[in-house]
C-alpha cells in the first residue's frame, strides 16, 4: 500500500516511520510510505508556508499556495485526508475502511498535516477529500496524528506483522477490548497468573479470554457494549460461569492460605515451647557446678554468710 504524507516536518515522520513495525513493513515492501516537504515548493528565499489570518487573530495559517503546488507536483494518492479537529473521529472501524483503500481495491491514500492555527479553509473545501481527527485534543500539528493513522493502518496490511493472528485478537476487532495478557514468571512478587492460563487446556483458555474481554469492556467501555446491542444470553452465561469459577478458586486459595498460616503459627509455637523447655533443663543441670552464683559465695565463706555471721567473727 502507498501512503503519502504532506508536512512541513518531513524528518519527524521519517524518523519514526523508519523504525519498529512500520520500518520493517517499509523494508519488506509491504508499505510504500512517501513523505513530502511542503516547504520545498514554497515561494521566496525563506520558503514561507504560512501567513496571518484575514480578520485578525492570534497565530498563523498554512497558506493554500504551497499545499496546492505540492499536490500538483507529487500527485499523491487519492483520497487525501486532512488531519483536523473537525474531522471524522478515527477508530478501528475507520482504520479498517482506510486500509481497504489499498490493493486490490486501490493504490492507497494521503495525509495532509496541518500546523499553527490550521489550514486555509479553501484547502479543506476544494483540495482534500476528507478530514480525520484522532480525538478531542489539541496538538501543535498533524504529524503525530498522521503517524497514528499510518501505524494503525500498517498493522492491518498482510505481511506487516510476524504473527497474522495478532490482528484478530486485538482490542476493538469485535467491538470489545482485548483480554488481559500475562507472561513469565507465573508468580511475581506474590501476584499469580490466573491458573487457567497454566492449564494447557486451549478450550478453557479461549473461554476465559472471551469472558475477560466481555467483562473488561462492560466495566471500562460500556459504550462499546451498547454499540453492539448489548450482550447475548450466551455471553451473559459465559461471563457468569467464569466469574463464579474465579470466585470459587479465590475462596479455595484463601482457605488454603489461612490453613498454611495456622500450621506455620502452630509450628512456630511448638518450636518456641521446645526451646523454653531446653533452656529450663539446661539451667537445672548447670546449678550444681559450684563455680558461680550465690551458692559459690556461700561455699567460699564456709557457710558463714549463710548464717548471717561477719567474716572476721571468731
How would you sum up this structure in a few lines?
The protein contains 11 helices and 9 strands. It is α/β, with parallel strands linked by helices and 314 residues long.
Jot down its keywords:
314 residues, alpha/beta, Alpha/beta knot, Trp Operon Repressor, Chain A, 2 domains, two-stranded antiparallel sheet, 11 helices, 46% helix
Distance between the termini: 122 Å
Strand content: 5-15%
Number of strands: 9
Q: State the helical fraction.
A: 40-55%
- Going by helix content, strand content and strand pairing, the class is alpha/beta
Helix and strand run:
EHHEEEHEHEHEHHEEHHHH
- Total discrete domains: 2
**CATH topology assignment of the largest domain:** Alpha/beta knot
Backbone CA Rg: 38 Å
Number of helices: 11
Mean pLDDT: 89
Flag low-confidence runs: 295-300, 302-309
The CATH architecture of the largest domain can be given as 3-Layer(aba) Sandwich
Strand order of the largest sheet: 2-1-6-5-7
Instruction: Tell me the overall shape.
Output: elongated
Q: What is the CATH homology-level superfamily of the largest domain? A: SPOUT methyltransferase, trefoil knot domain
Per CATH, the class of the largest domain reads Alpha Beta
For the largest beta-sheet, the strand count, sense and barrel status come to: 5 strands, parallel
How would you describe the overall organization of this protein?
This protein is an alpha/beta fold. Helix content is 46%, strand content 13%. It is elongated. It has 2 domains: 2-167, Alpha/beta knot, CATH 3.40.1280.10; 187-254, tRNA(m1g37)methyltransferase, domain 2 (Trp Operon Repressor, Chain A), CATH 1.10.1270. Strands 2-1-6-5-7 form a 5-stranded parallel sheet, sandwiched between helices. Strands 3-4 form a two-stranded antiparallel ribbon. It is built from 11 helices and 9 strands. The model is unreliable at 295-300 and 302-309 (pLDDT under 50). The longest helix has 54 residues, at 233-286.
Amino acid at each position: 500500500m502507498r501512503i503519502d504524507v504532506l508536512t512541513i516536518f518531513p524528518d519527524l515522520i521519517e524518523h519514526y516511520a523508519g523504525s519498529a513495525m512500520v520500518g520493517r513493513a517499509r523494508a519488506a515492501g509491504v508499505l510504500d510510505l512517501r513523505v513530502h516537504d511542503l516547504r520545498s515548493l514554497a515561494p521566496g528565499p525563506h520558503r514561507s508556508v504560512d501567513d496571518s489570518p484575514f480578520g485578525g487573530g492570534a497565530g498563523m495559517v498554512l497558506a493554500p499556495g504551497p499545499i496546492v503546488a505540492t499536490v500538483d507536483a507529487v500527485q499523491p494518492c487519492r483520497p487525501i485526508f486532512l488531519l483536523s479537529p473537525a474531522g471524522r473521529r478515527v477508530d478501528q472501524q475507520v482504520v479498517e475502511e482506510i486500509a481497504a483503500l489499498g490493493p486490490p481495491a486501490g493504490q492507497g491514500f494521503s495525509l495532509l498535516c496541518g500546523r499553527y492555527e490550521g489550514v486555509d479553509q479553501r484547502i479543506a473545501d476544494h483540495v482534500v477529500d476528507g478530514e480525520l481527527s484522532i480525538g478531542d485534543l489539541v496538538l501543535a500539528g498533524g504529524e503525530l496524528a498522521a503517524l497514528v493513522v499510518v501505524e494503525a493502518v500498517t498493522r492491518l496490511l498482510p505481511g506487516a506483522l510476524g504473527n497474522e493472528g495478532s490482528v484478530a485478537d486485538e482490542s476493538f476487532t469485535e467491538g470489545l477490548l482485548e483480554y488481559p495478557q500475562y507472561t513469565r514468571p507465573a508468580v511475581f512478587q506474590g501476584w499469580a497468573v490466573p491458573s487457567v492460563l497454566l492449564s494447557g487446556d486451549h478450550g478453557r483458555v479461549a473461554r476465559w479470554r472471551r469472558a475477560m474481554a466481555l467483562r473488561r469492556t462492560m466495566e471500562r467501555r460500556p459504550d462499546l457494549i451498547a454499540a453492539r446491542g448489548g450482550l447475548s444470553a450466551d455471553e451473559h452465561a459465559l461471563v457468569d460461569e467464569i466469574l463464579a469459577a474465579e470466585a470459587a478458586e479465590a475462596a479455595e486459595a484463601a482457605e488454603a492460605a489461612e490453613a498454611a498460616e495456622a500450621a506455620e503459627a502452630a509450628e512456630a509455637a511448638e518450636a518456641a515451647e521446645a526451646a523454653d523447655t531446653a533452656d529450663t533443663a539446661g539451667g537445672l543441670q548447670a546449678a550444681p557446678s559450684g563455680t558461680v552464683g550465690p551458692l559459690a559465695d556461700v561455699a567460699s565463706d564456709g557457710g558463714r554468710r549463710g548464717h548471717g555471721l561477719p567474716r572476721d567473727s571468731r
